[in-house]
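ok trying again, last paste got cut off:
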Amino acid sequence: MKPKFILALLIFLEIVLILILGLFLLHVLTAKPTRPTFISKENVVFTVSSQLKYFYELNPDSKEVFVPDWLGYKPNYRVNSDTLNERFDYETLKPKGVFRIVSLGDSWTFGQLVDTKDNYSEILEDKLNKLSCQKYQKFEVINLGVFKYDIRYEVERFKVRGQKYQPDLVIWHLNNINFQTVNEFVFKRHEQLQKELTNVADYQIWIKALKDQNETLGQKNILAYQSHSLALIDDYFKKNLVIFTTPIPIGIEEKYQKLIADFVAKRPYTKFYEDTTDLGRGMLFSDNHPNQKGHNQIAQDLFRYLTESKLIPCSSLY
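nice, full thing came through this time. structure:
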């Protein structure tokens, strides 16, 4: 009986393995293609700062910021009067009884491919406002995320748009791409290559510009630039800061984790939160970005982390 039982068990395990591989292949074959994100010039304002020639923001009232033809639907974005992907316009002067959070990041934070109401900043805001707090009657989560920002651009975005809101807490999502890209180099090189390679697809030109960046600057200089860019946030914000990352497919490599850890170790009131939810395994992402369910999961994870770590000043929770 034993050999028969073992044989049956092996056959069962083989069937399970085939089913798992089949589901994985189905997901890969039906997943949306991964392409770099490009924003049409009609939807952006290039705001030349003291140091950043190519810094850009979204035009207020932009509706179709990024709608690729392969997507199959049109996300309903609302870009408010302050260039933010937000349902609301927020008062510059923080009202009494309001706990204000700013979320920093790139297209993940912006909420690429989902309606404005479905990005994780909006969902987190709604979850927080269901809390009963004596000191604070309202929570606001203000989304500063923009497509294709590197770390330096995210800091500039906070300088230009975020600091005036006087946030009590900043949540900053970082991933590999933020550390791999120096926008000021890549945008300039991309602009040059567009004139030279007139019959080449734009996303291929972008990849070529990235390759040229790596060959010209070198890994050591790129890492030094990103480390310096991280530290610049201190010029504009000195309160509680949470840097958070997510696992593969767009997580954070060990060398970049070290940069974050070094930064956190030197900066008071700063925490590094590694979200462990695998959005890929749960099929909560497409085109390497969270889908609606993925954003909901991120908001749930952040809500749990912020309340358990007591970063949300709500005495009734503790």
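cool. The domain at 97-317 is CATH 3.40.50.1110 (Rossmann fold). The beta strands are 44-46, 56-58, 98-104, 138-143, 169-173, 240-245, 270-274, 285-286, 289-290.
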